[in-house]
Amino acid sequence: MRCMSERGAITAADLARATGLARSTISTALSELRSARIVIEVAQSMDVRGVGRPTSVFSLNPKAGTCIGLHVGLSSLRLIVADVSHAVLHHDEIELGLDYTPQAAIRKARVAMSEAYRRGGLSPHSLLGIGVAVAGPVAPDGRIQRASMVPSWAGVNVRDVFASAFDTAVFADNESNCSALAEMIWGAAADIDDFVYLKIDVGLGGAIVVQRRVVTGAAGAGGEFGHISIDPNGGLCRCGNHGCLELTAGFRTVLERMSHRRKKSVSIEDVVERAFGGDLDCVEAIAGIAEAAGRGLGIIGSILNPGIVVVGGAGAAAGPLLFDRLTDSYERHTLLKRAQLTEAQRLRIVPARFTTDGSLMGAVALVLRGLGALQGEG
Ligand SMILES: [Zn+2]
Fold first, then answer.
1. How far is the CA of 322 from the centre of ligand 1 (A)?
2. Model pTM?
3. Which residue in 254, 248, 221 sits closest to 235, CA to CA?
4. Which among 35, 77, 152, 295 has the fewest CB atoms less than 10 Å away?
5. Residue 226 Cα, ligand 1 centroid: separation in angstroms?
6. Distance 222 CA to ligand 1 centre (A)
């Protein structure tokens, strides 16, 4: 089940290969799981040579259970419903305005959830748990820290309030930690034990993964790369400190400047699209962000010396406009240069699989992992 949950639809032969179990064991387990309707046959495929008997392809029965992933953002709540094979069955975004309360979020989430289950013909009894990704540090016990970016949630134990409101298992973590988990299980870092996740978005977020564990630190602020203070004389950051990295390596400053000049709200998607269309101002804005993020990666490199950095967030959609300068800037700010290193020692900077929905997929992964359906820390 764990293998199916991670890989999706799979044949019995591939299951045997992936788990190391004997074909007979797999076949017995499959027939038991099929009679319990936990596993279903989804298709038949010919083998690669196109000869011989068709082979059955199995997957977890989507109706065997559903999970909800929630993202508590600065001014909105996003929600997905996924089945146990992590296929997304429903997606919703609810605008709540700045500094909404947990009670408002719970009310809206309840309405959105019942509507999603009704429309999808899903039983509410299939709900296995809720994962919550939060735009701010979350302590290991589920408490949102005072320094949180969602002020009215500060001090709230997000696990407790959702668990009592929805009477189900609830798991919570910081949004970038969730994104890193999604990349580790289903994305760009599958099968990689140690990596750094960097989210270049309106702000700058991140996560550190060591031995397939997301390192959250004593109070949940591990990997908050955006708030590395690099200039004591720099501008005021939304966290209250001065000169944080995200002032130059996140899109917020650029978006505010462009929105002011164009007298309308400009998004990261707008900047990326204009940059690809040859707008020099946007190309330079992205290059400036990449330059600053590369400098930040240099600092991270001196602390952790990662072999791989997975870059997600809406900014990653800028592709080579971002990645080329990021790589170049890192090279100028790191101690050991490429020429000194072997291929295996060189940092690889790769795009994330999940760009904008990574934290939601990670919230689903929190549930599946927490309930033992995925490998990793519990
Ligand atoms: Zn800050």
1. 22
2. 0.85
3. 248
4. 35
5. 6
6. 14
